[in-house]
Give the backbone structure.
Amino acid sequence: MHAGEGAQLPQHNSPSWPSAAHHLICRPSSRRRVAAARYLFHLGDPGKARSMVAASLESSPDEFGRVSAMLLLATIDYWTEGSLAAARWCEQALQEAGADQLLLARCHAALADLAPYDAAQLLEHARLAVELIGPERDDPIDALTNALKNVAYHELRLGHGLSLPLLERAAALEKRGAPLPVLERVGMYLGMLLRFAGQFADARRWLLQMRECAQDEGDDSALPNILGHLALLECWAGDYPGALAYAAEGLELSVRTGVGSPSVTAAQTLAEAHVGNVEVARRLAFVALAHDEAQGDDGDVACDLRSLGFADLSVGDWPAAAEHLLRALSIADELGVQEPAILRIHADAVEALVGLGRLAEAERLTVDLERSRDRGSLWAQAMAGRCRGMLSAAAGDLPAAATALAASLIDHQGLAMPFEEARTRLWLGSVLRRAGHRRESRLELTGALKAFERLGTPIYAARALAELGRLGGRAGGHLALTVTERRVAELVGAGRTNTEVAAALFVGVRTVESHLGRIYRKLGLRSRTELARLPMIGIAAPAP
């Protein structure tokens, strides 16, 4: 999110909004330049806006004009250069605000919104802004609204839960003031914070409403961030085509406007990894990681590492997954983010650590999830159960593992995260198989396989199929294929002709035909179409 720097915009959906910008540009003065620059930024021209407000800063003779210009520069730089650049302007504005309580309140509200400091510091800035405005007055409405939203946000980051009354107070204030730019509205925070709280339907409703507002009002600078949050929401909800569509639209708008959004790239990476395009996901993640490291945006770096770590985990690369996920958790710790449900890294990190046999570290992360569970997070409750089950399985206590995983599945019923539920079901099926409960195991593994296939997550479908193969029977028939037969099956399933397969494998077409005949018999199939519908075995995870 970004700072409320005193933007008093006319109704954005009025034809007078662009013309107001033109009017102000044609009648230059220090304050008019700031106002015109603000319009230009929200119309999607941050470069011209920055030049204009920088000129205003040089010519402004008074405190109010200079501080307003600096805070607008902070907002523009936040979305184009990163949070470090924004924080420098906020700190300079704070130094120049003097003893003016309202100017100081604006500066503290902006710092709470923009700076890359730890959550405790940012919460202090937000509370200072509220205190400086005082209980007797609600003006400036934009600064107080922004401060209240950030009090709620940083309290959630620190593990204090989501304070809806604060957001309701901010929403009531917002209705009384001049319309704010879309990214500064309470609806944007509700869309983001309700996603963290697991209330996906309400979060989606708010984000879609903000998207509609931005489109209707011509606030192009808001759209990349809105689309990024929508894309991440759909990743968590299991709609990967939807997530990729939002991400593609967000990237296109980022290029056109010059306004970046780390959420867009993080969501694209995460969605590509889920649908099996792991190498694409890795390339995207490394590019984003280099960019965000160069800008010093640690929060964005943590999001990049989260997506990269999941891609590594998907293909069973435990060392790389652990390295990236643990680094992301270390950054989150430095930023004071004490609520695991915000970044949602812990469960993946535990799985990677269990795969490496680093059980003491996995235990500590599981305890963090259990603390979040005790504060009322249903997501943390479901993930803590899965992690406890993985740890018990790794220790050889299969009854305890099955109990924890079964309880986790019950908790999943309150979440709208079908992919995570299927992962837990896969673990339960594997544990039941190891414990000798073949019928119950087959039931859970079949359910996981169907869910993964429905969601379009082929790597995890292959894992479920591999586990079914360990039970024996037709469902695991892929495992009866030789290495060459599996390669032929993969190529044919991907749409290659027999001639193309023969060329790829340096064999004759008749050899390919012979292999296909054996593949059909072993798998009980009758056509290439049926073969294409089956998820091929990729890199299966080690049996838990």
Observations:
- The CA atoms of residues 43 and 219 lie 5 Å apart.
- The chain has 29 helices and no strands.
- The radius of gyration is 26 Å.
